[in-house]
Amino acid sequence: MIDEHGDTVPLPTVSSDGGAQPPSGDGPQPKPPFGPIVKKVALGVAVCLVAGAGYAGLQHVANAPADPNSRGTHQPAATTSSPPDQAQDGVQRAVAGDAVLQKLTDAVETENRSEFMSVIDPKATAFRASARTIFGNLGKLPLGTLQLRYVSDDSGALTPDRQAQLGGSASWLAQVEVSWQLSGYDATPARETLPVTFVTRDGKTYAASFSERFATGQRQAVWTLGPIDVAKGKHSLVISLDSESEAKSYVSVADKAVESVTKVWGKNWRQKVIVYLPAKQSQMEGVLGAQPNTYTQIAAVTFAELDTPAVGAPVRIVANPKLFEELGKQGRRIVLTHETTHVASNATASPVPLWLAEGFADYVAFTAVPVQDASAAKELFKAVRAGKVPTALPTPEAFAASATELPQAYESAWLACRLIAEREGQDKLVAFYRAVHVSKSSTGLADAFTSVLGMTEAEFVVQWQKYLERLAGA
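C-alpha cells predicted for Basic secretory peptidase family protein:
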C-alpha cells in the first residue's frame, strides 16, 4: 500500500508491546522495531502489500539539503529577528552545539571512540551507554557520508526540573539534521531530525540526550534504536536490531527478491535493497515515525528516508518482526519480492495509481513464488460469486489500512495487472507501468491505456470484470 507513511504489508494481528514512544531525558533507550501496511493473501498466511511513500521526519526542520560530497561539515542555522540579548544567546548556543556535533562526526570518521565520548555528558550515565552503542553501530555501516547540522533550538523546551537535573550554566534542546549515505546503496543521503539536548558545564558543552521531545511523526534513525548487526549480500544489506544470525539468514531471501524483480522489471535500476529487521514492533514505529500500535497487523513497509518524495531517494524495507517471522519461508519471500518491486519502480515517488503500484508488486511477487488463485484471491472470488463484481478499478481509499474490503482491493489490483500480462504480454505490462510513471500529465493513466494497451480504461474494466467472473466460477 502506498501512502504518506510508506508501503505496507499486512499480517496476523499481534499484541502491542508498548513502549514505542522514545523516552525523555537520558534514561535507558528502548530497543525499537519497524513495520508496514496490510493485505491478506491466503497462502495459509497473510502476505504482502505495498504502501509506498513514507515521508514524515524532516517536516519540522529547515529544508537545506546536506552536501553529499562533504563529511562532518556544519552550518548553524541563522537566528530569526529577536531582542539583541536573546539573539546573542541563540548564536552562542548554536556555536557551542555545532562544535559538539563537529567533534562527533570527526570521531566517527576517524573511528575514535574516546573523542566521541569526550563530548557526551559525563553525568548522563544511561545516555553514555546509548552513545557507545550508537558509535559502534555507525562503525558497522558502510558509511559514505555522515553529517550533523544544527538547525534550530528552543531554550524554553526543557522543564525546570529537567534543567535542574542537568545542572550546569546552560541547557537547551536543539533540532539537528542527521544526514548519512550508505556506500554502494544510496544515490543520495538519508536524512532525519534528531532532538539533541545540550548542557554547558564548567565552560564545556556536552550532548546529554538524543531522545528528548520527539515530535509527532518524527522518524528515528535505525542506528539510534539499539545495537545493530549488519549482513551484506550480493544485492542486499540487512540491518538487524535482533541478532547477527537473523541478519545473515535474510540476506539470501533479499538477494533472491532482487533477482526476481530484475527478471520482470529489467536491469535499469540499482539492483540493491536495504532491509531493516527490528527486534520489536515499537522499533518499526520509531523508524516510520508512527504512533504506537499503528502497525500491529502489518508485515513490512517500504519507505523513503528523506523529507520529500524524490526519485533516487534512499529507500528502505522495514519488517514487523513477529508478523514477518510468522509468514514462513515462502511468505517472507513473497513479501520481500513485493516490497523490492516498489524499490525498483520508485513507488515512493511515483504518480502511478495505487491499484497499479500494488497490483504490479503482487504480480511480480506471485510470478516469483506462484500460488493458487483460489488462495491468493479468496476474498475477491467470494464477493464475485455473491454477485459483487467490482464496478471500477480500486480507488486510493480502498487501500487504506482501515478499509473494510482491503483484501479485495489488493486481489483486484493483482488480477488487473495479471490480465494485462496474459493478454498483452509481460513486457506490455511493464511498459504500461513505466508510461504512467514517467507521465507529467494529469491524464497519464488514460493516455497509457490508449497508447500502450490500445483501449480505454472503461473497455479494460469490462474485460477485467469478465476475467474475474471466469476465474471465480461465477
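The chain has two domains: 9-56+227-472, 59-218.
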